[in-house]
Amino acid sequence: MESAINALVSGFKAYAGRDGSSDTLSRDEFYRLVSSELSNFIKKADDPAAIDQLMSSLDKNNDGELNFLEFWQLIGQLASKHGRFSQ
Fold first, then answer.
1. Count of Cβ atoms closer than 10 Å to residue 21 Cβ
2. What pTM, to 2 d.p., does this model score?
3. Is the dihedral of CA 5, 11, 14, 16 positive or negative?
4. Torsion angle in degrees (nearest 10) through CA of 61, 62, 68, 69
5. What are the boundaries of each domain within the chain?
6. For residue range 12-61, what is the model confidence (pLDDT) as tens digits?
7. Closest Cα partner for 31 from 41, 20, 46, 18?
8. CB environment 44-61: b (16+ within 10 A), e (fewer)
9. In this structure, are residues 22 and 66 in contact, taking their beta carbons and an 8 Å threshold?
């Protein structure tokens, strides 16, 4: 599990650092991350409108970016669905 956490943190920082801050994902960074890394887990991963809606649902502080904790919500949701754990 440690390697999975390392991979998630490293992946987040790799995408987050492209447009500026390595602490947040911009809309474009989030779109690139989802379409490149999560396309088998997220329906319509190549649809910008669907990704905008997904990002908006995760962006709890409404700043137009996702910090790691906001992003982590998505990972938890995807893992729960993939593992067929009850919500």
1. 12
2. 0.90
3. negative
4. 40
5. 2-77
6. 999 998 887 889 999 999 999 999 999 999 999 999 999 999 999 999 99
7. 46
8. ebeeeeebeebbeebbee
9. no
Half-sphere exposure of 64 (CA within 13 A, CB side): 1
Overall fold of domain 2-77:
Recoverin; domain 1 (1.10.238)
CA distances (Å), 9 to each of 33, 47, 61, 87, in order? 13, 25, 21, 24
Output phi, psi for 67, to 5 deg.
Answer: -85, 175
Residue in 78, 73, 59, 68 with CA at minimum distance from that of residue 12: 68
Can you give the pLDDT at residue 21?
84
- Residue the block writes with tokens 């602490």: 23
DSSP 65: S
Contacts of 43 (CB under 8 A, 6+ apart): 50
